[in-house]
Amino acid sequence: MEKQETNKKTLKGKVISNKMKDTVVVSVSRFFKVPKYGKYVKKEKKYQAHTKNNHEIGEEVFISECRPISKNKKFQVIKN
Is 48 in contact with 35 (CB distance < 8 Å)? Predict the structure, then answer.
């Protein structure tokens, strides 16, 4: 039986909170063009990510999808 490779989402963002145990909140922003108006818009989304290391607020990190760890945690910090 062969292993299936899955495409896991990898995102880059800034740590905005590190108050929880083994969890950081990462803000990921994206810049895109609205098709209807041709206007460029910046949107931000927050993700909770699992980590064993202590990350400082404002630090740039990469997060990757993983199995659900809790109700809101579905990402893990892979490198900074």
Answer: no
Q: Do residues 23 and 73 lie in contact, with contact meaning Cβ atoms separated by under 8 Å?
A: yes
In the CATH scheme, what is the homologous superfamily, with its name and number, of domain 10-79?
Nucleic acid-binding proteins (2.40.50.140)
Task: Please tell me the number of Cα atoms within 13 Å of 55 on its side-chain side.
Answer: 29
DSSP 53: S
Specify whether the CB–CB gap between 28 and 11 falls below 8 A.
yes
Confidence of residue 15 (pLDDT cuts 50, 70, 90): very high
- For the chain, the domains span 10-79
Instruction: Write the DSSP symbol of residue 5.
Output: P
Determine the Cα–Cα distance for residues 51 and 43; give it in Å rounded to an integer: 25
